[in-house]
UniProtKB/TrEMBL annotation:
Residues 54-263 form the AB hydrolase-1 domain. Residues 326-367 are annotated as: Disordered. The lineage of its organism: Bacteria, Bacillati, Actinomycetota, Actinomycetes, Micrococcales. One of its GO terms (cellular component) is membrane. This is Pimeloyl-ACP methyl ester carboxylesterase. It comes from the Bacteria. GO terms for molecular function: monoacylglycerol lipase activity. GO terms for biological process: acylglycerol catabolic process.
Length: 367
């Protein structure tokens, strides 16, 4: 048998394995509210079983949709709870601007309200401040992930950060830009401008040394918001840390490089830090180029379903209809999974090796 035919046979077998696993992928999204005083956190969940649960905390202005690609990858390891916080994603906010500490208390209340024991808590952007504040006070949290930590104290100025954000945004996929813009519209300029000073002035560097949890820090190569020197400083301040940089990625590294980020998170959870690595920054080898067209091949029906689901999700959010929101999110997840499965079949037909993901299996092997 020729090498080409052997390769094609391997591709077909891999495609069959992917198809079998895809049939078990949980695309069902549930939505619930965890109340704390007069406020509540909206919790979007996929999966019910697994080794350990994940709690995902987004950044300023955006919604849990930012984790739409990361969540199903992590779900191969455990249930995933992506949070929408007051003032963002249509969740009502109080009359006063919430501080980072108040947001952290709400995340803690959500963890307790869900009955979670030692979840892996993942924060992105301003979410890293929220997670850091919570982890510094709760020693029952043993595993934390900070993606694109902010704010670099050497650049704690609004105009500077706006420029850094623009630099990073240049390298973001179009899908991320769409998610960000739509989320900012829903958040509104008024609430965003009230929370921005809280984020800008929060001294995350003062809280990092008090975090006892094993902490994974991830940045994208082109993330000007979380520059390399600042991330190394974060590693120095943390008592137990691992630092990784993703080639080709920007601030929202967990979207275009969801599979790689998920693998880092799972490996981090499975292998406690024996000794602090300090400022050592690892570079992820063999990362994808972040081109979503290489992972997804939506049909016209998939596209229509996804667009319709997104519109219904917006309407349900504005109406406060959690049941309709869960249905819309589930339909969107199913359309994404169908597009992924189709792309893997196309790769197999072309004799190329299909991807192992976006869904992954837990492994103890080093990447």
């Amino acid at each position: 048998m020729s090498p080409r035919r052997r390769h094609a046979g391997s591709a077909r077998r891999a495609a069959a394995r992917d198809a079998a696993r895809a049939s078990d992928v949980d695309t069902n999204v549930t939505v619930r509210r965890i109340e704390s005083g007069d406020l509540y956190v909206r919790v979007n969940t996929i999966g019910e079983t697994g080794e350990r649960p994940f709690v995902l905390v987004p950044g300023i202005g955006v919604s849990s949709d930012y984790f739409e690609r990361l969540a199903p990858n992590l779900n191969e390891f455990g249930p995933v709870h992506a949070l929408d916080l007051p003032g963002f994603a249509g969740v009502p906010h109080p009359g006063h601007a919430l501080t980072i500490r108040e947001y952290a208390d709400l995340v803690g209340a959500a963890i307790d309200g869900l009955g979670l024991t030692d979840p892996i808590v993942v924060g992105h952007s301003m979410g890293t401040q929220i997670v850091a504040d919570l982890a510094a006070r709760r020693r029952d949290l043993s595993t934390v992930v900070l993606i694109g930590p902010v704010i670099n104290p050497a650049e704690r100025h609004v105009l500077t950060q706006a420029w850094r954000f623009a630099q990073a945004a240049w390298h973001e996929p179009g899908r991320v830009k769409f998610l960000a813009l739509s989320a900012y519209v829903l958040c509104g300029v008024r609430w965003f401008s009230r929370i921005l000073p809280k984020m800008m002035t929060y001294p995350i560097e003062d809280h990092l040394p008090r975090i006892t949890a094993d902490t994974l820090v991830i940045r994208g190569e082109h993330d000007a918001v979380a520059p390399r020197d600042w991330v190394r400083r974060v590693g120095e301040l943390l008592p137990a840390s691992r630092l990784w940089e993703m080639p080709g990625a920007a601030h929202s590294v967990m979207h275009a490089h969801a599979e790689e980020v998920a693998k880092l998170c799972v490996e981090h959870a499975q292998q406690p830090i024996a000794s602090d690595e300090g400022a050592e920054l690892h570079h992820y080898e063999h990362a994808s180029d972040g081109d979503e067209s290489d992972d997804f091949s939506p049909s016209a029906a998939d596209f229509v379903t996804a667009v319709g689901a997104r519109l219904r999700s917006t309407v349900a959010t504005l109406r406060g209809d959690d049941a309709a929101l869960a249905k819309a999110k589930t339909d969107h997840a199913e359309s994404m999974q169908a597009a992924f499965d189709r792309r893997q079949a196309e790769k197999a037909a072309a004799g190329d090796e299909p991807d192992d993901g976006p869904h992954i299996e837990p492994t103890d092997a080093r990447l």
